[in-house]
Design brief:
One of its GO terms (cellular component) is membrane. With about 350 residues, the protein is of the alpha/beta class. About 40% of the residues lie in helices and about 15% in strands.
């Protein structure tokens, strides 16, 4: 029985490769099939590569891991935070492989699986853009196959990369990130915060005013009341293990430098506090998917506006989702994401009106 199954599986993979080759700019699936490492230079490490990155402060290594083989579709995943890890994307393992999508986990410099230098000057958006470009070159991603996915802070990084290097992209995905931090702050203060129980909001604001961001009661209020409404719509005790590991591996130096010490917005002298690229979006011509969610910390209307502001965009709305809609609205998130990638791959991508 096992032998029969193996034969059928091999036949199925072969048929899938043939069908994909016809639709993907005459590219062919590798003979070694989607899961094979045969003939790859990362075979001995199971797809993991430590990529050397040149910075103004020296050379450091960042961690990447490849899943699958598809010469026509390669997706690089940019995690949020800043200072989070690739672990928040482990849910992609349940959806991308069966679609034949090759994808790359990647811990940015300073994140848990990569080098973690202590020089705070490295936590700069422009430097991160150059890091992504070096990773792209090391992984041999080209405008024939390179899709860049960024969520939250990763969305900021993906937008900044596209504004400088969009000629290297085949597709761009901005997930759960608006193009303006000041607009995000306004939405948080005027729309989201008032939805909290008054006594909870008053207590949070007391800690915010005192800048007592490390107070355990403050953190508990955020995790128990704000996160389950707008970050991941599950009670904390039901959060997936991958997310818990990601939170436990967060690098606070990177996070606080760029995002600030508050869990309730971008505060203090955080480097991202005034970030805004709204007036530059119309220069982006590469096919772009913007993903918003009904209960997100980011205004979904702004995400829809972003999709219409770029020259070749599509908006995907997750009606049941929040900031991490790959977990709490996977029923809309993944089909819409896969559909965009495949539409671009086959040349069927239209700008939806």
């Amino acid at each position: 029985m096992k032998k029969v199954f193996a034969i059928l599986f091999t036949v199925f993979i072969g048929i899938s490769c043939e069908n994909h080759a016809e639709k993907s700019s005459e590219k062919k699936c590798p003979e070694n099939t989607y899961w094979s490492f045969e003939g790859r230079d990362d075979q001995a490490t199971g797809g993991i590569k430590m990529i050397p990155i040149e910075t103004p402060k020296g050379t450091f290594n960042v961690w990447t891991k490849r899943i699958g083989n598809n010469p026509a579709i390669k997706v690089l995943l940019l995690h949020g935070g800043p200072g989070m890890t690739h672990e928040i994307y482990e849910s992609f393992d349940g959806f991308f492989p069966q679609e034949g999508i090759e994808y790359y986990y990647y811990d940015q410099l300073g994140s848990y699986y990569s080098d973690q230098p202590e020089d705070l000057s490295l936590w700069d958006t422009a430097r991160f853009v150059e890091e992504v470009e070096q990773v792209r070159k090391a992984l041999d991603l080209t405008n024939d196959n390179f899709y860049l996915f960024g969520q939250s802070w990763g969305g900021i990084l993906a937008l900044e990369y596209a504004l400088k290097y969009q000629d290297n992209l085949k597709g761009l995905i901005i997930s759960n990130m608006v193009p303006s931090i000041p607009d995000y702050m306004k939405y948080n203060e005027e729309v989201l915060a008032p939805q909290l129980p008054k006594e909870v909001l008053d207590k949070i604001m007391q800690y915010e005013a005192a800048e007592d961001y490390g107070n355990q009661e403050y953190l508990d209020l955020i995790v128990q009341h704000y996160y389950p409404k707008h970050v991941i719509r599950l009670p904390p005790e039901k959060w997936p293990n991958s997310l818990n590991r990601g939170f436990s591996h967060l690098n606070p130096d990177v996070y606080v430098t760029m995002q600030g010490p508050s869990e309730f917005g971008v505060k203090g002298d955080a480097t991202l506090k005034n970030w805004d690229v709204k007036d530059k979006l119309n220069t982006i011509t590469v096919p772009t998917l913007s993903i918003g969610a009904q209960y997100d910390t980011m205004d979904p209307k702004q995400m829809e506006w972003l999709a219409n502001e770029v020259q070749n965009g599509r908006y995907l709305h997750c009606p049941n989702g929040s900031h991490l809609s790959q977990y709490d609205d996977k029923e809309h998130f993944f089909p819409g994401l896969v559909s965009f990638i495949k539409d671009v791959d086959t040349g069927a991508f239209p700008k939806e009106k």
